[in-house]
Amino acid sequence: MIRFNSDYTEGARPEILKLLEETNYQQTDGYGTDEWCAKARDLIREACGCPEAAVHFLVGGTQTNATVIAAVLRPYEGAISADTGHINVHETGAVEHTGHKVLALPSKDGKISAEQVKACLEEHFASPAFEHTVRPGICYISYPTEYGTIYTKKELEDLHSVCRQYGIPLFVDGARLGYGLACSECDITLKDLAQLCDIFYIGGTKVGALFGEAVVIPDPDLLPTFRYMIKQGGGMLAKGRLLGIQFAALFTDDLYMRISKDAIEQSDRIRKALNELGFKIYIDSPTNQQFFVLTREQYDEITKEFALDLNCTVEGGVVARACTSWATRPENVDRFIEALKRMR
Amino acid sequence: MIRFNSDYTEGARPEILKLLEETNYQQTDGYGTDEWCAKARDLIREACGCPEAAVHFLVGGTQTNATVIAAVLRPYEGAISADTGHINVHETGAVEHTGHKVLALPSKDGKISAEQVKACLEEHFASPAFEHTVRPGICYISYPTEYGTIYTKKELEDLHSVCRQYGIPLFVDGARLGYGLACSECDITLKDLAQLCDIFYIGGTKVGALFGEAVVIPDPDLLPTFRYMIKQGGGMLAKGRLLGIQFAALFTDDLYMRISKDAIEQSDRIRKALNELGFKIYIDSPTNQQFFVLTREQYDEITKEFALDLNCTVEGGVVARACTSWATRPENVDRFIEALKRMR
Amino acid sequence: MIRFNSDYTEGARPEILKLLEETNYQQTDGYGTDEWCAKARDLIREACGCPEAAVHFLVGGTQTNATVIAAVLRPYEGAISADTGHINVHETGAVEHTGHKVLALPSKDGKISAEQVKACLEEHFASPAFEHTVRPGICYISYPTEYGTIYTKKELEDLHSVCRQYGIPLFVDGARLGYGLACSECDITLKDLAQLCDIFYIGGTKVGALFGEAVVIPDPDLLPTFRYMIKQGGGMLAKGRLLGIQFAALFTDDLYMRISKDAIEQSDRIRKALNELGFKIYIDSPTNQQFFVLTREQYDEITKEFALDLNCTVEGGVVARACTSWATRPENVDRFIEALKRMR
Amino acid sequence: MIRFNSDYTEGARPEILKLLEETNYQQTDGYGTDEWCAKARDLIREACGCPEAAVHFLVGGTQTNATVIAAVLRPYEGAISADTGHINVHETGAVEHTGHKVLALPSKDGKISAEQVKACLEEHFASPAFEHTVRPGICYISYPTEYGTIYTKKELEDLHSVCRQYGIPLFVDGARLGYGLACSECDITLKDLAQLCDIFYIGGTKVGALFGEAVVIPDPDLLPTFRYMIKQGGGMLAKGRLLGIQFAALFTDDLYMRISKDAIEQSDRIRKALNELGFKIYIDSPTNQQFFVLTREQYDEITKEFALDLNCTVEGGVVARACTSWATRPENVDRFIEALKRMR
pLDDT-based confidence at B128, cuts 50/70/90? Predict the structure, then answer.
C-alpha cells in the first residue's frame, strides 16, 4: 500500500532526526526556555523579517488553534471562520470547548472574503440587540485552506484591512504553510505574511518535523501572557527543546522551503496528470492536496493499491483527496499516475 | 553546569531514537490507529496483566490529567486531590479550565489517606444542601507523589475501597511511575497497580521517552468515548506512531523498569550521602527526587555548579530538590556528592 | 406608543400578583424545596399526565436552555438545532459557553425535519474519523419556533423516533408553549407533548408570569442530579417559592391555556387583517407572532405609533414582527388594524 | 415553626409588591433597557455618590459572582477568596464552571487581610515558574462575610491598595450589604464603599426584594461589555423592569437602609440575649446572623419550634445560625429569646 491519504504518514526529515540524536545528551531547562528554542526563535524571526516577534512552539494544530483563539477572545466573543475551516469541522469542537462559538461563513473553495467578514461585523454592531448575539472577536483563515487553495496577497490585504477596522486580529492557520508558500500561484513570501496578519503559525507536523507548530506574533505586545495559555491548554512540552531543535533544523539552509517545493513538484505532477486524463477536478488546488472525482468503482479499485482520503460524496461518485508531502517519493507518484491512466 | 533540577533535562534513551530512525519512512495511518500503537498497546496490556485494558497515548502530563478528569466528571463534580497535587498547584488551572474544581485535601508528605477521602465524600452526601457544593467525582493521586513518596499497597487498597464504595474512580498520575515501581520501598508491581485503581498512566516523558504518557484503563467500558476527549483536548498527535514507537521500545526487554532502576540507584546514592553528611531532610523520598534543606548561602554556592530546583523556603534556608533520571551519569553524582561534602 | 414588539412588555396576570401578595409573609425554605413548588409540581404533573415526572423551575429561557443542554451532553457532544434556533442566534453563545457546539441545520419556516436529524446522526457515525468531529448528543427544537410555526404531531413523532434510535434526547424549548398549544392548527395537547419528547419546558415569562420556566422531564431517572446543574448555572432562585407560586396560579383553573387562547385570538385578528389587506406574509404563523413585509417607509411610519420588532431586511423592505400576549388589549389590536388599513 | 434559618424566608417589602402592581400594565422594552431600570440606576448612582457608575441588575448572587468574575478574568487567572467565601464553598463550583480557579486563602472570622493578598500576589510573580500556576486576577470578599463579620474602613483601604498595586480589581459581594452598612460596628457608608473597591453589588434578594442584585462599577470603563456577559450567563431578565422597579422602591425614601436597620435591631436583641445567657459565641457577628454553640440536645429541642441553620459541628455540640431580616417580627424574636432562656 502506497499512501497519499494524508501528509503525515512518515516520520521526519533526516536532518531533524540527526540533530535530535546529536543533541540528545545535552542538558537543558524545560518548557521552551532552552537555547535551542532561543535559536529557533531567532531563525524564525529572521525568516519572517520580524526582529521583535514573539514566537511560541506548540505540539499540534488543534491545540494551537484552540489556544490562540482562547487567548484572544473574551468569553462572549466568537471566531469567524469558513464553514469548511478546520476549527469548524475537524477538531471535535475544541474551540467551543474553550467556550467560544465558531461563526461559520459560507466558503468558496475553502475561502472567505473580506466582504463577508465585513458584513458579519457590520451586522453584529448594527443590531440594536447585539448583546444577545456572539460578538466576532477574531478572524480565522487557513493558508492554504482545507481545499488546498490559497489567498492572493490582495485578498489577504483586504481581510486584514477589515479586521483592523474593527479591531480584531486576523489569525492564519499555517498547518501546511510551506506548501502554500512554495506553490506556483503564491504571490506572497513568509515576510509578507508577517505583515498581512496578526498571528500565524508555521506548521511543522505536516512539513518535515515529527510534530510541532511555531506560532508567530509579529507584535509581541499582542499576547504578552500567552505562555500561561499554552501551559493551561496542555501545549507546553516539558522537553521544549525538541521543538526548538526541529524548527532550528527546518529554518537552517532554507530546509523548510526546499522540502515544501519537493512536495509541490510531486503534487503538480498529479494535478497535471488528472487534467490530462480528463478526471473531473472537484476544487483546483495549486498546493499539495488534489481533490478529484472518481466513480465509486474507480475509488474502490485504486485504493486497493493507493491509500486516498475520501473527502465527500458527489453525484456520480466520490471526491478523493491525494496528498503529497516532503516525504513523497517520485517513483510512487509515477505508479499512481500509471494507475490513473489505467482507469481511463 | 550539571543539571539535577528536573528529570527531563535530556532527550531520550538511544533505543528510542534508533527505532524512530529505523521506522522513519514507514507509511502509517495517523492519530494512534497505526501498527506501532497497536503493538505498544499489546506490550503494555501484557506488562499490566490486563488483556482487555484500553490504552491511550497522550503527549504530556498536564494534558493527560485534564483530559482524564474532564472525561470522567459531570459538570458539577470536582477532583479530590492532595493540596500539593500537581493538578492543584502546577498546571495553571488546567482542570478548572475544563470547568471542574479541585477539591484539595491537606496532605502529609504529598499523600492523602483513605480516611480523608471518605470524610470528604461523607460530608458531601450527608449535607442537606449538597447540591450547593461541588460533588466529588474522581480521586486523583500521584505515584510517586510530588515529594517523591509512595503509597503502600495497603494504602492504595484502602483508597480504592473507599472510591468503589462511593462509585468514583481512583486515578493515579504516573508521570514518574517507573521511579516509584523501581524503588526499594515499593511493595507493588505494575500488575498490582492495574488492580488497585481505575485509571492510571505510565509516564514516558520523565522516564526515557522524548515525550508521551500511556493512559491505562483496565476496564475498557469505563471511558469508551475517550478518543473524542483526546482529540478535543488537543492531545491526539497526528503522527501517533511516534508514541507507539516510543512505548514499544520502552516495553521491550523490560527497558522501562531497567532505566528506572538506574535512576533510583543514583538517587539512593545522593540520599545516603545527604544522610551521612547530616543534611536536614525535608521529606524523605525513596524515589528519584531528594528534598533537603540548605542555607541560602549553601544553595547559592552549590548552584553555581549544579542546577537544583528551589522547592520552597523554610526557617533557616531553602528546600532544594535534586532529581535523577534514566540519563543521570554516575560521575555527575560523584561530583555532586563531593560538592556536598565540601559544604560540611 | 402601543407595543407589539415582544410578548414580555407587561408584568404578570393579576391572579399571580394576588397570590404573591397573599403568601408574602409565609415563611418557607428556599431553593425550590418549599410547599408552593411542591404544589406547582403536582399541578404540572397532572396537566402533563406524568405522575412521575421531574419538574424543575428556572428563571429564564437562555438559562434553561444552557442548563438542560449542559446537563445532557458529554464534553465532546453538541446540540442539533435549526440554524434559526434561539440557542444558535440569540443567546450570546450561552451553549458554547458551557463548552458545546450548536450543530445548526438549515431550517424551513424555523423547523427541522426528522430526515435532517437522521442524516446528521448517520453522517457522524458513518465517518471513519468521527472522533474528529462533534458528536450530536441532543436534539433541540422550539414549539412554537422562532417564526411562530409549529410541528405537527407526526413531525414530532418522527423526530422523537430518530432520537430514540440514536439514543439522544429530544428537547423542546417551550418558551411560548402556551401559544403553540392554543392555536388553531395545533394537533397535540400538553399530555401528548410529554409523550413526544424527553425534556421540555413550559414557558412562564412570555405566558402570564413575571418570569419563570418549568422544565418537565417525564422520565425522572433521565437527569437525577439536575439540581446541581441549576445551582451551578445560577438558576436556583433563593426564594424558589416565587416560581412555585406563579406556576401554581398558572395551572389552577386552566389559567395557562385560557390566557394563551386570549393571545391567539388577538394574533389571529392581525393575521386575518394582514391577509385581507394584501400584505406580504413572510412566514405564515398560526401562533402569537406575525411576520410580514413592509416597505421601509411603511415601517418607519407605523412604528411612530406601534412598536414592532424589525426581524430582518428583504428585497423591497423589511420583515416586521408583531406579537400578542396574554396582556394584549383588543382595543389596541383594533387601532393597529386601523393603522394597517390606512397604509393600503 | 418560626424560621430564623435564613434571611430569605419571606417574599418582599409591601412597597415593592405595591409598585409591581401599580406598574403591571405599563408597557416597556425588555432586558433592562426600560425607564424603571434607568430610574433605579440613577437612584443607586446618587446613593453611591457615583454619577458615572455603571449599574447592572442581575437575578441572584451565585449568578452575579460568576458573571462578574468571568467578566474580569483572563482564562489563566483565578479569584482570590477567603476559604470560607461563598464562591469557594456554596456555589457548586460556579466560578470553576466558567474556567477559573478559586485561590482560597485561610480566613479569620470569614475575613482575609491585605497582607495575605499581598503575599499571594508576590508569591505568584516572584516565582520563576509563574506560568505554571494560576495568576491571581481579582480579589473577592464579602461585606458582611459568611460569618456576619465586617471589614473596617482601614482594612478595606489596605486591601484596595494592594489590589491597585498589582492591577487587579477588588470585588465586594454585597448579598447582605444593607445588614453590614446598618450595623453598629460599621464605619463606612455606601458612598465610602464605592471608593473602597472596584466592583460591588447591593443585595436585594436578602434585603427586602423578591430577588435581584445591583452590580455597581464606579468606573464605567472597567467592564464596558458587561451586558454580553450577563446575557451569556443567563442573568439578563426578559422583564428587566422587575429589577428596576424593585431597586427603585428600595432606593426611594431610604427604604433599603431603614429595613436593614430593622433587621439589625432584632439581631442585636438575639446577640445580647445569647451573651447574657452565657451561650458560647462561635463567631461574634454585629450583623444579621448570629453563630452560637448548642449541645446536640439543645439544638434538637429548640429546632422543634424554631428553624435554625446548622452551620457545623464542634466539640461538645453544633454551631447554630440564627438570621434576622427585613421581615423579622419582634414578637418572634421575643419567643426565641424565651426559648433560649428556658434552655439555661
Answer: confident
